[in-house]
Design brief:
- Helices cover 18% and strands 13% of the residues.
- The chain is an alpha/beta fold.
- Strands 1-2-3-4-5-6-7-8-9 form a nine-stranded mixed beta sheet, with no helix packed on it.
- The chain is globular and about 45 Å long.
- The protein starts with a strand and ends with a helix.
Length: 184
Amino acid sequence: FLFVYNLKAVVSTQSTGEAEEIKLLCQIPSIEKMDASLSTLTNCKKLSLSTNAIEKITNLNGLKSLKILSLGRNNIKSFSGLEPVGDTLEELWISYNLIEKMKGIGVLKKLKVLFMSNNLVKDWSELQKLSELPCLVDLNMVNNPIEEKHSLEGTWRSEIEKKLVKLKKLDGVPIVRQDDEDEG
Protein backbone atom coordinates (compact mmCIF):
# COMPACT_ATOMS: atom_id res chain seq x y z
CA PHE A 1 0.00 0.00 0.00
CA LEU A 2 0.96 3.61 -0.36
CA PHE A 3 0.56 6.23 2.37
CA VAL A 4 0.84 9.83 1.25
CA TYR A 5 0.16 13.19 2.81
CA ASN A 6 -2.02 14.93 0.23
CA LEU A 7 -3.76 14.45 -3.08
CA LYS A 8 -1.04 16.39 -4.94
CA ALA A 9 1.53 13.90 -3.68
CA VAL A 10 -0.60 11.04 -5.00
CA VAL A 11 -0.60 12.44 -8.51
CA SER A 12 3.09 13.23 -8.55
CA THR A 13 4.14 9.79 -7.29
CA GLN A 14 4.85 7.54 -10.24
CA SER A 15 3.91 4.30 -8.46
CA THR A 16 0.44 5.43 -7.38
CA GLY A 17 -1.22 4.32 -10.60
CA GLU A 18 -0.07 0.81 -9.76
CA ALA A 19 -0.82 0.89 -6.02
CA GLU A 20 -3.67 -1.32 -4.85
CA GLU A 21 -4.19 0.46 -1.51
CA ILE A 22 -4.05 4.20 -0.94
CA LYS A 23 -4.37 5.78 2.52
CA LEU A 24 -5.00 9.51 2.89
CA LEU A 25 -6.14 9.58 6.51
CA CYS A 26 -6.17 12.47 8.99
CA GLN A 27 -4.57 14.90 6.58
CA ILE A 28 -3.31 18.28 7.79
CA PRO A 29 -4.67 20.37 6.33
CA SER A 30 -7.75 18.16 5.82
CA ILE A 31 -8.74 17.05 2.35
CA GLU A 32 -11.90 18.95 1.45
CA LYS A 33 -12.54 17.65 -2.07
CA MET A 34 -12.10 14.39 -3.89
CA ASP A 35 -10.38 15.96 -6.88
CA ALA A 36 -9.65 14.66 -10.38
CA SER A 37 -6.25 13.27 -9.33
CA LEU A 38 -8.13 10.26 -7.92
CA SER A 39 -8.92 9.10 -11.45
CA THR A 40 -5.24 8.19 -11.92
CA LEU A 41 -5.54 5.43 -9.31
CA THR A 42 -6.63 2.83 -11.84
CA ASN A 43 -5.36 -0.24 -9.94
CA CYS A 44 -6.51 0.90 -6.51
CA LYS A 45 -8.63 -1.72 -4.73
CA LYS A 46 -8.85 0.03 -1.35
CA LEU A 47 -9.06 3.81 -0.98
CA SER A 48 -9.03 5.31 2.52
CA LEU A 49 -9.97 8.97 2.85
CA SER A 50 -11.26 8.86 6.42
CA THR A 51 -10.98 11.68 8.96
CA ASN A 52 -10.90 14.60 6.56
CA ALA A 53 -13.39 17.34 5.62
CA ILE A 54 -14.86 15.84 2.44
CA GLU A 55 -18.44 16.93 1.73
CA LYS A 56 -19.18 15.20 -1.60
CA ILE A 57 -18.21 11.93 -3.22
CA THR A 58 -16.70 12.80 -6.61
CA ASN A 59 -14.13 11.81 -9.23
CA LEU A 60 -14.27 8.03 -8.85
CA ASN A 61 -14.42 7.49 -12.63
CA GLY A 62 -10.92 6.04 -13.06
CA LEU A 63 -11.08 3.65 -10.11
CA LYS A 64 -12.08 0.59 -12.14
CA SER A 65 -10.73 -1.90 -9.58
CA LEU A 66 -12.07 -0.29 -6.39
CA LYS A 67 -13.52 -2.81 -3.92
CA ILE A 68 -13.27 -0.98 -0.57
CA LEU A 69 -13.94 2.73 -0.03
CA SER A 70 -13.37 4.20 3.41
CA LEU A 71 -14.89 7.65 3.93
CA GLY A 72 -15.63 7.62 7.66
CA ARG A 73 -15.38 10.81 9.73
CA ASN A 74 -16.01 13.34 6.99
CA ASN A 75 -18.92 15.71 6.23
CA ILE A 76 -20.63 13.64 3.53
CA LYS A 77 -24.39 14.12 3.22
CA SER A 78 -25.35 11.77 0.36
CA PHE A 79 -24.40 8.72 -1.68
CA SER A 80 -24.38 10.74 -4.89
CA GLY A 81 -21.17 10.19 -6.84
CA LEU A 82 -20.83 6.43 -6.31
CA GLU A 83 -22.15 5.51 -9.77
CA PRO A 84 -18.69 4.97 -11.35
CA VAL A 85 -17.87 2.21 -8.81
CA GLY A 86 -21.34 0.66 -8.78
CA ASP A 87 -20.18 -2.54 -10.46
CA THR A 88 -17.03 -3.11 -8.37
CA LEU A 89 -17.46 -1.71 -4.85
CA GLU A 90 -17.93 -4.45 -2.23
CA GLU A 91 -17.39 -2.51 1.00
CA LEU A 92 -18.34 1.05 1.92
CA TRP A 93 -17.17 2.41 5.25
CA ILE A 94 -18.98 5.71 5.72
CA SER A 95 -19.61 6.01 9.47
CA TYR A 96 -19.52 9.35 11.29
CA ASN A 97 -20.90 11.46 8.46
CA LEU A 98 -24.11 13.47 7.95
CA ILE A 99 -26.16 11.05 5.84
CA GLU A 100 -29.91 11.14 6.39
CA LYS A 101 -31.23 9.84 3.04
CA MET A 102 -30.22 6.59 1.32
CA LYS A 103 -30.92 7.86 -2.21
CA GLY A 104 -28.26 6.59 -4.62
CA ILE A 105 -27.22 3.53 -2.60
CA GLY A 106 -28.96 1.21 -5.08
CA VAL A 107 -26.24 1.63 -7.72
CA LEU A 108 -23.85 -0.49 -5.61
CA LYS A 109 -24.93 -3.87 -6.99
CA LYS A 110 -21.96 -5.80 -5.53
CA LEU A 111 -21.94 -4.14 -2.09
CA LYS A 112 -21.55 -6.75 0.65
CA VAL A 113 -20.56 -4.57 3.62
CA LEU A 114 -22.02 -1.20 4.63
CA PHE A 115 -20.68 0.43 7.77
CA MET A 116 -22.63 3.62 8.38
CA SER A 117 -22.92 4.02 12.11
CA ASN A 118 -23.23 7.51 13.57
CA ASN A 119 -25.11 9.10 10.69
CA LEU A 120 -28.57 10.72 10.65
CA VAL A 121 -30.88 8.06 9.15
CA LYS A 122 -34.24 8.19 10.91
CA ASP A 123 -36.92 6.71 8.59
CA TRP A 124 -37.76 3.10 7.67
CA SER A 125 -38.49 4.30 4.14
CA GLU A 126 -34.81 5.19 3.80
CA LEU A 127 -33.61 1.86 5.18
CA GLN A 128 -35.94 0.05 2.79
CA LYS A 129 -33.66 1.25 -0.05
CA LEU A 130 -31.04 -1.21 1.21
CA SER A 131 -33.22 -4.01 -0.17
CA GLU A 132 -32.01 -2.86 -3.63
CA LEU A 133 -28.56 -4.27 -2.72
CA PRO A 134 -28.64 -7.97 -3.70
CA CYS A 135 -25.29 -8.86 -2.08
CA LEU A 136 -25.53 -6.96 1.24
CA VAL A 137 -24.68 -9.31 4.13
CA ASP A 138 -23.09 -7.04 6.77
CA LEU A 139 -24.71 -3.79 7.96
CA ASN A 140 -23.75 -1.47 10.82
CA MET A 141 -26.27 1.27 11.64
CA VAL A 142 -25.44 1.86 15.34
CA ASN A 143 -26.14 5.40 16.60
CA ASN A 144 -28.42 6.43 13.77
CA PRO A 145 -31.71 7.90 15.08
CA ILE A 146 -33.71 4.98 13.62
CA GLU A 147 -31.52 2.37 15.33
CA GLU A 148 -31.54 4.19 18.67
CA LYS A 149 -35.34 4.59 18.67
CA HIS A 150 -36.13 1.00 17.69
CA SER A 151 -33.43 -0.53 19.91
CA LEU A 152 -35.05 1.23 22.89
CA GLU A 153 -38.40 -0.23 21.80
CA GLY A 154 -36.82 -3.67 21.39
CA THR A 155 -37.80 -3.98 17.71
CA TRP A 156 -34.60 -3.03 15.85
CA ARG A 157 -33.11 -6.45 15.08
CA SER A 158 -36.41 -8.19 14.29
CA GLU A 159 -37.52 -5.41 11.93
CA ILE A 160 -34.22 -5.34 10.04
CA GLU A 161 -34.17 -9.14 9.79
CA LYS A 162 -37.64 -9.04 8.20
CA LYS A 163 -36.77 -6.23 5.79
CA LEU A 164 -33.29 -7.45 4.75
CA VAL A 165 -33.58 -11.22 4.54
CA LYS A 166 -30.08 -11.86 3.11
CA LEU A 167 -28.31 -10.03 5.95
CA LYS A 168 -25.91 -12.23 7.94
CA LYS A 169 -24.57 -9.64 10.39
CA LEU A 170 -26.21 -6.56 11.93
CA ASP A 171 -24.32 -4.02 14.02
CA GLY A 172 -21.43 -6.45 14.50
CA VAL A 173 -23.61 -9.34 15.72
CA PRO A 174 -24.35 -12.40 13.55
CA ILE A 175 -27.97 -12.96 12.58
CA VAL A 176 -29.24 -16.47 13.33
CA ARG A 177 -32.49 -17.27 11.56
CA GLN A 178 -34.71 -20.30 12.16
CA ASP A 179 -33.89 -21.71 8.67
CA ASP A 180 -30.14 -21.39 9.46
CA GLU A 181 -30.62 -23.55 12.56
CA ASP A 182 -32.57 -26.17 10.60
CA GLU A 183 -29.73 -26.55 8.09
CA GLY A 184 -27.03 -26.99 10.80
